[in-house]
Amino acid sequence: MNILFWHAHGGWADAFVRGEHTYLLPTTPDRGPFGLGRAGRDWPANAVEVSPDALATADVDVVVLQRLEELEFAEQWLGRRLGRDVPAVFVEHNTPKSDVPHSVHPLSDRSDVTIVHVTHFNSLMWDTGHAPTTVVEHGIPDPGPLYTGDVERFGAVINEPVRRARVSGSDLLPRFARVAPVDVFGIGAERVPELYHDSDGGVSGAGDLPTQSLHESLAKRRAYLHTTRWTSLGLSLLEAMHLGMPVLTLGTTEAFRAVPPEAGAISSDVDDLVHAARQLLDDPDEARRRGARAREYALEHYGLPAFLDRWNQVLDDTVSTARRRSSSSAPIERTVR
Fold it and tell me: Among residues 281, 288, 251, 276, which one has the least CA distance to residue 266?
């Protein structure tokens, strides 16, 4: 198939573009948020940059949306109506942000665009009304069993840990730093010491590293910390498990489905996690055993082949359903932005 989709969530797209299709990525001269293209990513050759002008005559089998604004851009650039002239699905990456559990999804009144949740928790918490829904859980390109754990420090990956302190749980990190220093990777990680005015330096920013360098650096730490209070499901957690790291995970949202206790520790009681952190620090052999279990579970439940197979099913069903509908309609006026 020829699939139109935007480079919106780089980690998710890293897996999505590794399928058997041609992936058309809108690309504008300013490389803005709706024209980012590949953005220098080391993606397969079937991830192709395409200008908005070229989309008017492009052979597009299905549109995979990830942001509400993309509905307007897609119809303007294609000159076709989504759900009628060209099949479309909407990937919901996020948990509801307000009025939980009464949050109504913005596409709840559409029966022609399937909402694809990335976790079962998201599917449970969003009120999607009459919209068809399904779940395709995450898949991760396997970075390999890189874990050594020989550095007696903990690692966490948190983008914007200061602005998102409550959501990401970065305010909890000093409690783990009493056991061993915590290194925070990610966008804006260098600002994390600003949160802890009385800190003795136990929590430090380790930079926003390229993916391979990040994996290599993380894998040296004794354990991975996942402290996010409210999230869909952090891809960095699944990557750490693929690396063979033991994970200390706050038991919120989808985490209880994603992390078995024998992969490290999972609890909504932070004291439980701090106690487990001490055990892993004192017993590197146990840390390796739990890390091996984390990798085994991640490969079984969040491996790339199953992710791509499930997406193939969704795309095939979407296109087949659209073909059964009457889709005769006049083209809409097209405006290039």
Answer: 251
Instruction: Report the DSSP pairing between strands 2-5 and 62-65.
Output: parallel
Contact 295, 243 (CB under 8 A): yes
Number of residues that make up the chain: 337
Q: Is the peptide bond before 101 cis (omega within 30 degrees of 0)?
A: yes
Two tokens, residue 104: 């109504």
Angle at 239 between CA 234 and CA 243, to 5 degrees: 150
Please, which pLDDT band fits residue 336 given cuts at 50, 70 and 90?
A: very low
What is the C-alpha to C-alpha distance for residues 330 and 101, in angstroms, rounded to an integer?
Answer: 40
Q: How far is residue 299's CA from residue 130's CA, in Å, rounded to a whole number?
A: 34
pTM tops 0.90, yes or no: yes
Q: What is the pLDDT of residue 6?
A: 97
User: How does strand 203-207 pair with strand 133-135?
Assistant: unpaired
Output the pLDDT for position 323.
82
CA distance 291 to 220: 12
DSSP percent split of the chain into helix, strand, coil, nearest 5: 35, 20, 45
Instruction: Give pairs for 162-166: CB < 8 Å, separation 24+.
Output: 162/188, 162/191, 162/192, 162/194, 162/195, 163/188, 165/195, 166/229
Average pLDDT over residues 222-239: 96
CA–CA gap between residue 173 and residue 274 (Å, rounded):
10
DSSP tag of 39: T
Asked whether the beta carbons of 223 and 152 are under 8 A apart, the reply is no
Asked if 37 and 49 count as a contact pair (C-beta separation under 8 A), the reply is yes
